[in-house]
Amino acid sequence: MFKIGSFFSPLLDFILPRTCIICNEQINQGLLCDNCINYLPSIRNPLCKRCGRPIKKGGLCRYCKGGSMVEHGRAWSIYMPPVDKIVHYFKYRRQTSLARLIGLGMSNVIKADNILNKADYIIPVPLFWFKRLKRGYNQARLLTEIISSECHIQSINALSRIKNTRSQTRLDPELRKRNVRNAFVLKDRRIENKNVLLVDDVLTTGATINECARVLKSGGAQNIYSCVAAITLIE
Ligand SMILES: [Zn+2]
Ligand SMILES: [Zn+2]
Q1: pLDDT at residue 13, as a whole number
Q2: Labelling 38: which of 87, 140, 162, 187 has CA 20 to 30 A away?
């Protein structure tokens, strides 16, 4: 689709000064001011041993206690203000330039983690083809490309989404599992006996990542790891 905004953006910048999407402070470039970038909520220990979610006591979070196919996971940030807004702009408002900020943040998390940085392949959680066409991109794939080049891990699009699942947002944990069941198929056999790192934008109950992990494991993958941009807290 032809977008007036992108065509005239140098002109618009001149007329309308750029402002930070979080605090409305005037900025020269990008979408966020330095102050907002520096004060993004950080992940603090203790973390759930499986998904990497900050929890009150060590061990597993409530969702991973119910069973997890992911051996080890980490997140860049917490899904709360202002990160929820950043993810929203990245996912639904075509602000794909945010992939760099988020992808570099995730890369730093992976580089510092001695399990994740040894993954053989990195795989984005796929979108259903129609959703990707409508959105114009798969946000997880954009993150994967940046992480792949930063962390020197080969990326492969080993999964395909064959079901146009409805949004998980309003579903309870059990319905989320059911909603994504059999939604993915394996289309690349290179994952056999390999350690695979799955990448997605947000992890809530882990239903989507777990279903991807299940398919990869039944295709012969050894260990499944995950890294997400933002993870929710459990109250
Ligand atoms: Zn700001
Ligand atoms: Zn967990």
Answers
A1: 55
A2: 140
- Where does the pLDDT of residue 44 fall: very low under 50, low under 70, confident under 90, or very high at 90 and above? very high
Ligand nearest to the CA of 18: 1
Closest ligand by atom to 209 CA: 2
Beta carbons of 230 and 77 less than 8 angstroms apart: yes
Centroid of ligand 2 to alpha carbon of 207 (angstroms): 11
Q: What is the pLDDT of residues 2-11, one digit of tens each?
A: 555 555 555 5
Ligand 1 (ion): residues with CB under 5 Å are: 20, 22-23, 25, 33, 36
Domains, in order of start, for the chain: 1-39 (no CATH), 41-231 (3.40.50.2020)
**pLDDT tens per residue across span 90-146:** 999 999 999 999 999 999 999 999 999 999 999 999 999 999 999 999 999 999 999
